[in-house]
Write a structure and sequence with these properties.
Layout lengths: L1 H35 L4 H9 L1 H12 L5 E6 L4 H8 L4 E5 L5 H4 L5 E5 L8 E7 L6 E6 L1
Helix pairs in contact: 3-4
Amino acid sequence: MKKRNFLFVLLSFYCFIAVGIVGYNIVTTVSEIKDWYFLTDIQKRHKIFGNLYDFFTFIDKNTPENAKILIVSSDVRTFFLSRYYLYPKKIIVLSSPKDISDLKIAYEYIASYGMPLSLNEYSLILTCGAKDGKGFLYKKR
C-alpha cells in the first residue's frame, strides 16, 4: 500500500511539473511572437545581425555578380554571413589588415568593416554608414 501511495504521489508530482513546463512554454511563445510577428524580414535580420546585414547588402548591390572580394573585419560573424549574403561572389575574409599585402593582387574589390584602410592600388568608391562601425568598399584602379 505504501508503495502504491508513493508511486501515486510521484506520478502526480511529475504531471504537475509537466503541466507547468507546458504553460511556461506557451507564455514564452506568445511573448516572442508579440516581439517578432509584426517585423518585416529586413527588420528581423537587423535585429539578429545588426549593421553587418546593411554592410553585406551594400556590398552586394555595388559589386558585380562574379566579383572577387577581399573583406577585412574583426567581427567573427563576417565569414559566415558573407558566404550567405554574397554568394556566388568569391570571398576571402581577413581579420587583420596586416595580411592584405599578399592577397590584394588577385581581388578587384576590398571591403572593410569598422576600419578604414589606406591602399595605394585601390580607390575608395563607396562608404556605408552604420552606428557601431562603417563599411568601406575599395575598387582596384
